[in-house]
Design goal:
Blueprint lengths: L1 H11 L3 H6 L2 H16 L3 H14 L7 H8 L12
Length: about 80
């Protein structure tokens, strides 16, 4: 927790008193932004953020054309029982 205080103090020049007085939701938002800025400084950090973004925002619908291309599945109808 004190390392988070130091991080906020160094990034935003906040005093410790100001940090203690801010709402908890603001504190968490500032901490998140500081950590994101730190991760963006390295290639590994940017890869981690990309993976985390994909994990947190999964696709809602399947890409059926991609699935069909991989599996060979087609939508053509076969003849029914009426001959």
């Amino acid at each position: 927790m004190f390392s988070d205080f130091a991080l906020l103090a160094s990034y935003y020049n906040f005093s410790h008193e100001y940090i203690l007085q801010m709402p908890h939701s603001h504190f968490l938002a500032y901490i998140k932004q500081c950590h994101v800025k730190e991760l963006k400084k390295s290639e590994e950090g940017r890869e981690y953020l990309d993976k985390a973004r994909r994990y947190m925002n999964p696709r809602k619908d399947a890409d059926l054309s991609a699935i069909r291309a991989i599996t060979g599945y087609t939508t053509s109808k076969t003849g029914g029982g009426d001959n």
